[in-house]
Task: inverse folding
């Protein structure tokens, strides 16, 4: 008999069916054995009694996580025995039971708990097993919707999807957090971002986006840094100012959040956290120096460096929530000294740039801004940043033959999921994360 999915069982009451999946739990009550079976669509209770001799004998030996195939009759369950995890009020009375895959091993960790709460090391050390937990699977269901929604809204806004190289001859973002690799007989770098290539994309297609892996050699253990993450990038031409980019990003993030809230109520509830809110009036925008003032006046926090630190971002996030009921806030006009050489300086104040960060629940999730599009200004600015234009010949070629005013953003996908669910570490939002010490599984 052809296998059907657990979610379709309520329509099969009184019929004989075949299902297959993992044994989520087994309870032996002597005269009756219950097994909860899990497949990709849900969870169902099954029962076997001694009259079904062969199946009953097999069921006695079964342990959690065995893979089984079950043939039996779908029955309505009496109301009082319906438990919370049940997808519906039906159960299966087992007639035939086939063990497809078994193990002699004991499970190293208990994974069926609804409210699993393990420390990060345990979560990562037993990764392939722990990912089977419903609450943990939810993270990746939300992640998949995020990628799908980003792709959809970008295409709808006339951006073309591109894929750019990840093995490069130069580091793109400056700083020291790049991975140097051997590339045949010379050195190469893993892309820290698709920055140069998405700008090249503008020179051809006007509007491009990319969903792709990027690499950062982050030597520290923090709750918000990964060494390999998936960046949601965009770049658009013919802008009138960098506000156009923020407007576009706001549209995108609003759509993504709406989709996730609509499709994942159940998953968000498992994490016992409020769903994300964006005020009707839009995401508030603060100049960085205004934010500085607010932090000093309202929260007694003085930012000494040119850039705002993680604690400052957290506090400004709290302020945005209190003042505007917003989980998001844009910070704008970062100083030249903390932005890469390709960032457009503010026409009115050359010490500042037309750039922004988007803060979500107190963490930076996106950086963006207007870029320099004039060939000669770009060369000039490279020199100001102590870079040799000869090292950037191919990048400069983009600007040599006509380039419109443009800009874009890079957004960390894992940080978005982390903040939607309130995960302690960003690593929880990655199937198999890497850090300084971890290259497995
Ligand atoms: P930036 O370096 O700020 O900007 O990165 C953009 C966004 O990527 C995310 N991010 C990270 N996420 C996880 N682990 C990391 N180590 C990590 N580093 C960054 C953050 C951040 O906001 N080219 C520019 C973007 C642009 O201007 O278009 C860039 O890469 O969410």
Result:
């Amino acid at each position: 008999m052809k296998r059907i999915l657990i979610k379709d069982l309520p329509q099969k009451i009184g019929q004989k069916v075949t299902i297959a999946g993992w044994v989520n739990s087994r309870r032996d009550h002597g005269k009756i054995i219950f097994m909860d079976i899990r497949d990709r669509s849900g969870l169902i209770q099954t029962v076997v009694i001694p009259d079904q001799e062969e199946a009953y004998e097999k069921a006695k030996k079964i342990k959690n996580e065995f893979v089984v195939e079950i043939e039996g009759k779908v029955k309505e369950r009496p109301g009082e025995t319906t438990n919370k995890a049940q997808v519906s009020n039906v159960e299966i009375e087992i007639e035939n039971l086939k063990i497809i895959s078994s193990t002699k091993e004991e499970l190293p960790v208990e994974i069926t708990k609804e409210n699993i709460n393990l420390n990060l090391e345990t979560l990562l050390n037993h990764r392939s097993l722990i990912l089977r937990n419903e609450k943990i699977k939810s993270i990746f269901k939300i992640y998949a919707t995020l990628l799908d929604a980003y792709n959809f809204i970008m295409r709808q806004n006339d951006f073309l999807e591109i894929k750019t190289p990840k093995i490069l001859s130069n580091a793109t973002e400056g700083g020291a957090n790049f991975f140097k690799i051997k590339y045949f007989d010379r050195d190469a770098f893993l892309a820290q971002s698709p920055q140069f290539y998405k700008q090249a994309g503008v020179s051809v297609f006007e509007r491009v986006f990319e969903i792709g892996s990027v690499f950062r050699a982050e030597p520290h253990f923090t709750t918000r840094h990964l060494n390999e993450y998936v960046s949601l990038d965009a770049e658009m031409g013919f802008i009138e100012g960098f506000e156009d980019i923020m407007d576009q990003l706001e549209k995108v993030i609003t759509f993504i959040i709406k989709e996730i809230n609509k499709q994942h109520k159940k998953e968000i509830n498992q994490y016992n956290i409020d769903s994300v809110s964006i005020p009707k009036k839009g995401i508030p925008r603060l100049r960085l120096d205004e934010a500085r003032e607010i932090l000093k006046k309202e929260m007694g926090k003085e930012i000494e460096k040119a850039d705002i630190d993680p604690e400052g971002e957290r506090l400004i996030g709290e302020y945005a929530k209190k003042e505007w009921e917003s989980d998001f806030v844009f910070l704008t006009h970062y100083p030249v000294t903390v932005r890469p050489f390709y960032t457009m300086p503010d026409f009115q104040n050359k010490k500042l740039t037309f750039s922004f960060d988007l803060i979500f629940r107190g963490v930076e999730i996106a950086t963006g801004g207007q870029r320099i599009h004039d060939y000669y200004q770009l060369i000039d600015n490279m020199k100001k940043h102590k870079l040799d234009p000869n090292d950037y010949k191919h990048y400069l070629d983009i600007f040599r033959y006509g380039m419109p005013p443009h800009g874009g953003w890079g957004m960390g996908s894992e940080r978005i999921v982390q903040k939607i669910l309130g995960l302690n570490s960003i690593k929880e939002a990655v199937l198999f994360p890497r850090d300084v010490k971890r290259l497995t599984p």
User: Anything to note?
Assistant: The CA atoms of residues 6 and 238 lie 51 Å apart.
